[in-house]
C-alpha cells in the first residue's frame, strides 16, 4: 500500500497544567498497544511541555476503523479526555511523503 493511501491524523492536545508527562505516556502506550499505526511521531512543544502534537499514520483504512471502534480506543479516549485542559484538535490527512533526508 502506498503511503498516500494510508489515513492519518495530526492531533494537538493540551494537558491540564502539570499533566503533560502523564498524557505523553498514555498516548505512547496506547499507540504501541493498538497495533493500528504503521508509524507515529509524538512531539512536545518547546515552549509548553503540556502540549502534545501527534502524527499518526494508520496501516490502512480498515485498521483505522477497527481501532476507532475498539474497546481500547474507548478506554484511552476517556482517560485522555480527563487529562486535557481543552478539546483536542484533530485533522484527518493522508501523508504525501515520509522519507529519510540524505545529508551529505
If you had to describe this structure to a student in words, what would you say it looks like?
The protein has helices at residues 20-34, 61-68, 71-83, and strands at residues 8-14, 37-44, 51-58, 89-93. The chain is globular and about 40 Å long. It has a four-stranded antiparallel β-sheet with strand order 2-3-1-4. A hairpin with a 6-residue loop joins strand 2 and strand 3. It has three helices and four strands; from the N terminus they run βαββααβ. The chain has 104 residues and is α+β, with helices and mostly antiparallel strands. This is Quinol monooxygenase YgiN. One of its GO terms (molecular function) is monooxygenase activity. It comes from Celerinatantimonas diazotrophica.
Outline of this structure?
With 104 residues, this protein is an alpha+beta fold.
Highlighted features:
single chain, 104 residues, alpha+beta, Alpha-Beta Plaits, four-stranded antiparallel sheet, 3 helices, globular, Quinol monooxygenase YgiN, monooxygenase, monooxygenase activity, Dimeric_a/b-barrel
Amino acid at each position: 500500500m502506498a503511503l498516500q493511501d494510508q489515513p492519518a491524523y495530526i492531533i494537538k492536545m493540551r494537558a491540564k497544567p502539570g499533566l503533560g508527562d502523564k498524557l505523553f505516556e498514555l498516548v505512547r502506550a496506547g499507540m504501541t498497544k493498538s497495533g493500528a499505526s504503521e508509524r507515529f511521531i509524538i512531539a512536545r512543544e518547546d515552549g509548553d511541555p503540556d502540549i502534545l502534537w501527534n502524527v499518526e499514520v494508520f496501516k490502512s483504512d480498515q485498521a483505522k476503523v477497527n481501532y476507532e471502534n475498539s474497546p481500547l480506543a474507548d478506554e484511552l479516549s476517556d482517560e485522555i479526555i480527563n487529562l486535557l485542559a481543552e478539546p483536542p484538535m484533530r485533522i484527518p490527512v493522508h501523508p504525501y511523503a515520509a522519507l529519510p533526508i540524505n545529508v551529505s
